[in-house]
TrEMBL record, chain A:
<comment type="similarity">
    <text>Belongs to the binding-protein-dependent transport system permease family.</text>
</comment>
<feature type="domain" description="ABC transmembrane type-1">
    <location>
        <begin position="55"/>
        <end position="266"/>
    </location>
</feature>
<keyword id="KW-0997">Cell inner membrane</keyword>
<dbReference type="InterPro" id="IPR050809">
    <property type="entry name" value="UgpAE/MalFG_permease"/>
</dbReference>
<dbReference type="Pfam" id="PF00528">
    <property type="entry name" value="BPD_transp_1"/>
</dbReference>
<dbReference type="InterPro" id="IPR000515">
    <property type="entry name" value="MetI-like"/>
</dbReference>
<keyword id="KW-0472">Membrane</keyword>
<keyword id="KW-1003">Cell membrane</keyword>
<keyword id="KW-0813">Transport</keyword>
<feature type="transmembrane region" description="Helical">
    <location>
        <begin position="247"/>
        <end position="266"/>
    </location>
</feature>
<feature type="transmembrane region" description="Helical">
    <location>
        <begin position="140"/>
        <end position="161"/>
    </location>
</feature>
<protein>
    <submittedName>
        <fullName>Permease component of an ABC superfamily sugar transporter</fullName>
    </submittedName>
</protein>
<feature type="transmembrane region" description="Helical">
    <location>
        <begin position="58"/>
        <end position="77"/>
    </location>
</feature>
<keyword id="KW-1133">Transmembrane helix</keyword>
<feature type="transmembrane region" description="Helical">
    <location>
        <begin position="12"/>
        <end position="31"/>
    </location>
</feature>
<keyword id="KW-0762">Sugar transport</keyword>
<feature type="transmembrane region" description="Helical">
    <location>
        <begin position="186"/>
        <end position="213"/>
    </location>
</feature>
Length: 277, 275
C-alpha cells in the first residue's frame, strides 16, 4: 500500500522536482529541448527589479501581518478562555472565515472596501473622511494584510487557545502567592509557556505570506504601482504570460529558500523547549 | 468569583460583537445578492427590493454565451468530490500501512512524507504544468484531478490518528477473520471519524477553492471550475455587482454547509472541548 504512494510521488513529486532543477539552470520556452545556461537564470532573477519589489512587498506584508495577527489571535484566545456561554458559536464564526472560499471573499472585500462601498460610506458619515483602502500604494498592502488577518485569526487563535489551556493552574497560584502583577504574569508565565504554539503560528504565518496569490491577484491585480505584487503574482506572470518558465522556476527556488531561511532564523532565535513538570 | 461579574459580562459582549463583525462580510454578501445592482450602494443594508433576479441572471445561459455558470458549478462539484473521495480513501489505506504494518524502509518513508509536506506548493506549479503538458492533459479534467489524488498531509494526519488506536482491536478483528478492508471499514474508520472528517473537509475546501492551478491548466470556459469563471466574470463584468455577489454566495455555500455539518468532528479533531 505504501508503494502506491511511492509510485504516485515519483510521478507527481520527484519528476516535477527534477524538472524544477533542470529548468533552473537552463533556458526554455515551453518548446524544444532546454538549453544549458548555468547560473544565468539566477543572475537574471537577482538583477530583476520586480523580483526585489515583490520580496520587499512580502517583508512589508509580514511587518503588518505578524504583529496584527499575533496580537489579535492572542486576544481572541484570552477572550475565548473567559467565555462561558456561546463559546461554540463564537469559535465557529471566526473559523468560518478560515474555511470560506478565497475567490468569494476576495470579491466581497474588494466591493465592501471600494471607494463608495459601505465601509467608506460609514466612515464618511461618522468621521468625515474615507480611506483609499486599495487605491493608495501605502494603504493597499495593509488592507490585504487585514483581510488575511480576518481569515486566519480564528485558526491561529484556537491553536493558541489550546496552548493556553494546557498551562497548569498551579503556576499561576504560585505567582499570585508571590504577589506577581497581572502584566508580569503575562510575560513571565503565559507567553513563555505558550512558546511552542506561538512559534507554530509564526511559522504558519510566514508560509502564508510567501504563498499569497488569490487576494492580490483578484483585489488589486498587484497594483497600485506594484505595491501589492507578491512573488506568486510575479512568477505566474513570468511563466504563463511572458513565457519565461525557467526564469520563474529559478525564482520559485529562491523564494522557497528565503522562506526556509526566515523560518530557520525564527526558530533558532525564539524556540525554547518547555517542559511542564 | 462574584466581583468579576461585570468584567465577565463585558468580555462576553465584546466577543459576541467581534463574532458578528467577523460574520459581517458574509451577511452583507448574502443580503446584497438579493438586491438590484443599482440599489446595492445606495440603500441601507436591509432596505430596498429583494428578488431572485441575480441568481436567475447568473444561471440563465441564453442571455450571454460566455458565462456557463451552471456547467462550471457541476465541474467544480465533480472535481472536488472526486478528489475528496480519492484523498480520504488513499490516506486511510496508506495511513494504516504507516501506522500499523511493519515493512522495510518505514522510517525513511515517514521522513519522505514530512519532507514532501515541508516544500511549498508554489515550487511545483511550473514543473507540474510541464508534466501535465507532456501527459497531454492540458484543458482536461485529468489535469485538475490527478495531481491532487493523494496527499502527504492526509496520509500523515491519518497515520498519526491511527497510531492512537490500540492494536488489540485489530487483533480481535483478525481473530474474527476480518479482511483488511473489514478492519478498516469496521474498526479503524469508526474509531477515527474526526480525523477523517477533517482530512475530507480540508481537501474538499482546497479543491473547491483552488484558483491558481485551474487558471493555468484550463483554457475553455466550459471546463473551468466555478471559482475561476466567477473571478474572470467579476473582472470583466464588475458592474454587474448583484450577479457577482450571487456567484460569491454560490461559491461560498458548499464549504460552509459542510463545515456546519461537520463542526462537531472538526472541534474534536482540534482537541478542543468548547462546551
Amino acid at each position: 500500500m505504501a508503494s502506491s504512494w511511492l509510485g504516485y510521488s515519483v510521478l507527481f513529486w520527484f519528476y516535477p522536482f527534477v524538472w524544477l532543477a533542470i529548468l533552473s539552470v537552463t533556458q526554455w520556452q515551453f518548446i524544444g529541448t532546454p538549453r544549458f545556461n548555468g547560473l544565468y537564470n539566477f543572475i537574471g532573477v537577482m538583477q530583476d527589479e520586480l523580483f526585489w519589489k515583490s520580496m520587499l512587498n512580502v517583508l512589508r506584508f509580514l511587518l503588518y501581518y505578524i504583529p496584527i495577527v499575533l496580537v489579535a489571535s492572542l486576544l481572541f484566545a484570552a477572550g475565548l478562555k473567559r467565555i462561558k456561554y456561546g463559546k461554540g458559536f463564537i469559535a465557529l464564526s471566526f473559523l468560518l472565515a478560515n474555511v470560506s472560499s478565497g475567490v468569494a471573499y476576495s470579491i466581497v472585500f474588494s466591493k465592501l472596501f471600494s471607494e463608495y462601498g459601505p465601509i467608506n460610506e460609514f466612515l464618511r458619515e461618522w468621521l468625515g473622511f474615507a480611506i483609499p483602502w486599495f487605491t493608495n500604494p501605502d494603504c493597499a498592502m495593509l488592507s490585504i494584510a487585514l483581510i488575511v488577518t480576518w481569515k486566519f485569526v480564528g485558526y491561529y487563535g484556537l491553536i493558541l487557545y489550546s496552548g493556553m489551556m494546557a498551562i497548569p493552574k498551579d503556576i499561576y497560584s504560585a505567582a499570585i502567592l508571590d504577589k506577581t502583577g497581572r502584566f508580569k504574569q503575562l510575560y513571565a508565565i503565559t507567553l513563555p509557556m505558550m512558546n511552542a504554539q506561538i512559534i507554530m503560528v509564526l511559522v504558519l504565518a510566514i508560509t502564508v505570506a510567501f504563498g499569497i496569490f488569490t487576494e492580490p491577484y483578484l483585489i488589486t491585480g498587484g497594483g497600485p504601482l506594484n505595491s501589492t505584487t507578491t512573488p506568486m503574482v510575479v512568477m505566474y506572470e513570468a511563466a504563463f504570460q511572458n513565457m519565461k518558465p525557467s526564469w520563474a522556476a529559478t525564482m520559485s527556488i529562491i523564494v522557497a529558500a528565503c522562506s526556509f531561511a526566515l523560518i530557520w532564523i525564527l526558530r533558532r532565535m525564539f524556540e525554547k523547549n518547555i517542559e511542564i513538570v | 468569583m462574584k466581583k468579576f461579574k461585570p468584567l465577565s459580562l463585558l468580555i462576553h459582549l465584546a466577543m459576541l460583537t467581534l463574532a458578528i463583525t467577523w460574520l459581517y462580510p458574509f451577511i452583507w454578501m448574502v443580503v446584497v445578492s438579493f438586491k438590484d445592482t443599482a440599489q446595492i450602494y445606495t440603500t441601507a443594508l436591509f432596505d430596498g427590493r429583494f428578488s431572485l433576479d441575480n441568481y436567475a441572471f447568473l444561471f440563465d445561459n441564453s442571455a450571454r454565451a460566455d458565462k456557463p455558470f451552471l456547467r462550471t458549478l457541476f465541474n467544480s462539484m465533480f472535481i472536488a468530490i472526486t478528489i475528496t473521495a480519492s484523498v480520504t480513501l488513499t490516506s486511510t489505506l496508506v495511513g494504516y500501512a504507516v501506522a500499523k504494518i511493519q515493512f522495510r524502509g518505514k522510517s525513511a518513508f515517514k521522513n519522505l512524507l514530512i519532507v514532501q509536506m515541508v516544500f511549498p506548493v508554489f515550487m511545483f506549479i511550473i514543473p507540474q504544468f510541464v508534466l501535465m503538458r507532456e501527459l497531454g492533459l492540458i484543458n482536461s479534467y485529468g489535469a485538475m484531478i490527478l495531481p491532487f489524488m493523494m496527499s502527504a498531509w492526509g496520509i500523515f494526519m491519518v497515520s498519526q490518528s491511527f497510531k492512537g488506536t490500540p492494536n488489540d482491536y485489530i487483533y480481535a478483528a483478525k481473530l474474527d477473520h476480518a479482511s483488511l478492508w473489514g478492519i478498516l471499514r469496521h474498526v479503524m474508520m469508526p474509531l477515527n471519524k474526526s480525523i477523517l472528517a477533517i482530512v475530507a473537509l480540508f481537501t474538499f475546501s482546497s479543491a473547491w477553492d483552488n484558483f491558481l492551478w485551474p487558471l493555468i491548466v484550463m483554457r475553455e470556459a466550459e471546463k473551468m471550475p466555478f471559482s475561476v469563471l466567477l473571478a474572470t466574470f467579476s473582472k470583466s463584468y464588475g458592474v454587474y455587482l448583484g450577479p457577482v455577489m450571487a456567484g460569491a454566495v454560490v461559491q461560498t455555500l458548499p464549504v460552509v454547509i459542510l463545515f456546519i455539518l461537520f463542526r462537531k468532528y472538526f472541534l474534536q479533531g482540534m482537541s478542543l472541548s468548547l462546551k
